[in-house]
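Archive transcription. Copying these from loose printouts into the bound notebook so they stop getting lost. Printout 1 of 2:
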Amino acid sequence: MLVAAISVTVLAILLLLAAWRDDQKISADMGTATAEVLSAGKLRSAVSFVTPDGVTHNPELGVLYPTNLTSGEHIDVEYSRTDPDLVRVAGRDARVAIIPTASVVVVTWAIALPALYLDRRIRRGRASDLSVERAHD
């Protein structure tokens, strides 16, 4: 249980750091465009936009921070000019991932700590039962 809780916490923090790194890459060489939302989901939304050189981009992994988008909607996006497949909804950054990440970590430990405590009490009870049995033998 402890290993699982630590693993979930580390993965959540790594995801937040990866989002921050992606934001840094976008901000370092940022281009802006208007994109059409092709499909919208809670975890992934597909967009299509045209860069100033006339090339249409459909990022394979979708747009970063896709919350509250609707198919057919036109939105402003910010992208890395060196890697136009790295694109986010304009005005959004890794800060929008802080609350969901913190929530995952809090819920994980809210489940793990009582479970670990209960497991420890059960193990102590068994150990004391064994010592009482041995004393009687």
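Printout 2 of 2:
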Amino acid sequence: MNSRDELLELLRENARYSTAELARLADMEEPRVEKALEDLEAAGALRGYQAVVDWDELDRERVRATVELNVTLDRETSYGDIADRIAKFPEVTTLRLMSGDYDFLMEVEGDSMSEVSWFISEKVAPIPEITQTVTHYVMDSYKENGIEFGDGDEDDRLSISP
């Protein structure tokens, strides 16, 4: 693995590592780490640093849904055109063009199920090129962006004794 890839993996593990920590972990000089991060940011390869939030641990409800979108294209409209329009909504946290049974996979967040439902039915579904939406509400999260949720010690299995 080259040093750039190693830095990216370390940042994916913990975006709060300081450049000094990154340098120590990657066995690099700190100025070289700073330069590599500047280059990655300037090239658009490193787009941001984010926290992974376990909403179940907070008193604030956060509703998330994954939505399958099917579209019909015409001569003037491309997948990129549709993606540009949908990605502008602040409720959309992730949007991907997919292969398979549907065209886009969209992840949305809101403060309630009715807010998420309203957004999908009133803002997304009316887009002329969208022919079908299938919404899946997230019931629980066990792992996100490589981070496992839960305390790790909990064992919900029933014990069996002879």
